[in-house]
Amino acid sequence: MPHPETPPTEPTPAAPTPTGPPPGRRTGGRIRSEDARSAVLAAAIELIEDLGYQGVTVERVAARSGVAKSTIYRWWRSKAPLVMDAYRSAVAQRMPEPDTGSVADDLTVFATAMYRVTAHPTRVRTLRGLMAEAQLDPEFAEQFRAWVQSRRTVVLTALARGVQRGELAPAIDLEAATDQFFGLFWYRLLVEHQPLEPAAAPAHVRQLLNGLRAR
Question: Taking Cα atoms as reference points, which of 125, 128, 183, 121 lies closest to residue 152?
Fold first, then answer.
């Protein structure tokens, strides 16, 4: 007796292939965004050092970085914060934030690196230009002071550690001591009546600390 035909078996549907990125991995858009931001900051610092603050425009930054002007304005509302973000990023890469265990060594490392700016005439010109611009442009002055304060914080922190370790007198005025530390640098940088030489930094720090040490 003939058997009835067995109906054909339906193929099992294949599991859908995931289309999104694996969990925990950053998307390409995020990476491209970070690359674009880095390109903008690099272009801005190049333009500052080539042309000075007045020569920097968002249009020029866009042209040099290859990032759309509209994108730049989404990240920075105007030229002033863009320029100082670029400068802050560049200085952070060039300058240490030492914590050696000794206030004298911390300040010497920081001052020596700071004085090395004199080996780069374009950087000296840039720093003088930024200081001058801060006297004329209130919006830029706000950004410039915020950057200056970030540098002051490094020295204030080093001095405070020195007080905690008993290296410095407990009642010293940390703000005034920080002004004294930076005062020599800025005065010589702007007036040029005396050189700023990295080799002189240890002696300058010793002279400052002689008046701050615990008795």
Answer: 183
> Beta partners for 213?
168
24: left (phi over 0), alpha (psi -120 to 50) or beta: left
Q: What is the DSSP string of 61-100?
A: HHHHHT--HHHHHHH-SSHHHHHHHHHHHHHHHHS-----
Beta-carbon contacts of residue 85 (< 8 Å; ≥ 6 apart): 41, 44, 76
Task: Give 109's Cβ-side CA count (13 Å radius).
Answer: 16
Say how many C-beta atoms besides its own lie within 10 A of residue 2's C-beta: 4
CA distance 37 to 41: 6
Residues across the chain: 215
Cβ atoms of 160 and 174 within 8 Å: the answer is yes
pLDDT in tens, 34-72: 999 999 999 999 999 999 999 999 999 999 999 999 999
List pLDDT tens digits, range 132-168. 999 999 999 999 999 999 999 999 999 999 999 999 9
Q: Is the dihedral of CA 43, 46, 49, 50 positive or negative?
A: negative
Whether 190 shows a pLDDT value over 80: the answer reads yes
